[in-house]
Amino acid sequence: MKDNTSLSSSLAIEVPDETTGPRPTNSKPEQLQAVAIQRAFAGLNTMLQATGEKPSYYDETVAAIAAVHEYAKAVQDSPERGKAALHAVLQRFSMTGHDPIGTLQRVATGLPEPINQQVKKVADQTARVLNVEALRELERRWDAEVYSFFQQRLAGRYPFVVRAPDASLDDFEAFFGPKGRLQQFHDQYLKVFLKDNLEALQASRQGQSLIRSDVIEQLELADRIRETFFDQRGNLSVQFSIEPLGLSANQRTSLLDLDGQLISYTHGPTQIVGVVWPNTLGQQVRSNLTLLRQNGNSSSLEYRGPWSMFRLLSRGSLNGRTATSVDLSFRTGDGVMRYRLNAEKAFNPITQQPFKGFTLPRGLLEQSASRGGVAEVPTVL
Fold first, then answer.
1. Residue 336: strand pairing partners
2. Beta strands 317-321 and 273-277: pairing type?
3. CB proximity list for 45: less than 8 A, separation 6 or greater
4. In this predicted structure, what is the pLDDT of residue 373?
């Protein structure tokens, strides 16, 4: 390139700029043509010119491309390519290691047309190859550490499936808790991809992301579940109050037992009672509502298990709702009992449905990105 960019000395003349006078009228046609050529390639010619000890743009560009080549080739040649790609991308995104791709992208912005676009394309395509490989590795870890646990311990159980056995509170906390599997995986891997560098994961100029769109949506739903069922100290805890509103006239009294917390009501003044969940950690947890008739007969609704309180409350018919409270009617036998439940937190299982729409994605990559093969490392220009 350096040896074939100079015009013949017999044709070359000084190129006039804006400060020089008009072009000589006695210039030969060959000289005028040389001036036109020099102007057209002035930007490219400037690349070859070194300034003092500073290398020319051409040398700097070649060195930057070579650095990207070595950077990507180290990943390609690794016996654990996915692990190496994930490590490289995490370092690049968190700015804790060297970033030859970013360097090449910055170099490209200072180059003339059309080479700036070609150099930028080398950087962008190399970044995409590494990003896809890193996300494939991340997807494998997601499946092993997060998705499999959810499928085996939670997905087929209440509260995710209404007519199913209860999920254990230990498993629920181990997955959704502030220190649970999902949050730890998010903090270790997903945050740097989805919150800090989401724009870098665009697969095309049309803005299509390498990450499935439902991944972010489901993680936001998981955040809501976490905020709903865990307190500020990270403990599994739901607090609300319950107030008896009225009992049908053919009943003498009602007794509501929520996980060992008793709310009794006989026609007359009402009292607001605070309720917490979970209240007991034993194996024989139960919640029930019993109505006692005037003739002494009784009827009841009862559920057993760690989620029995919510199973029972879900049997209530909605009579009224505000942002923080609901009025529910419970029918058992030929009697009806009405309660008002009030929750102070914005996210709560009393006035909202925190599990509605939650489906943990098995994959992270868009199908088009997942099907694509691993591209070869770009060669040095």
1. 331
2. unpaired
3. 5, 38
4. 41
